[in-house]
């Protein structure tokens, strides 16, 4: 008698939908090793002269300590030198403050000085928009009154509104109450 085996396989071939998460808290990690995936730093959408802060974690997976030089013209980083011990990591804080509207793409260059050919180019991008201005909802006044006319008209209005109450005797006071 032969035994039969049945295996059930399920495949999900529909594409996964990428969720729009919190860009500000997104973790950007770069492992300093050849052929590693480079992160793309998203600064998101900000207004002119506002600033966006992101962080980049650099992990040294080499067997030696690394002397690293970091530079980027757009982020105003000029040859910052770091020493990352073997098996350790360091966090790099990045700030972008655009001064004109538009879509921006820029790069962050990371190079290990003591290991030849260990260079990385990390791309970053962001959108800068102009601040929104509120439109005036109130209509302008049609005529301008002088301060003397305003005082006279307000005094006349109070005369018309206020009428004195005169009590003749005690009985009329009780009728009002």
From TrEMBL:
Q: Which InterPro entries match?
A: ASH, Ig-like_fold
Main localization category: cytoplasm
Which segments constitute the Abnormal spindle-like microcephaly-associated protein ASH domain?
30-110
Q: Which UniProt keywords apply?
A: Cytoplasm
Keyword Secreted in the entry? The reply is no
| Transmembrane stretches, start-end | none
**Identification of the protein by name:** Abnormal spindle-like microcephaly-associated-like protein
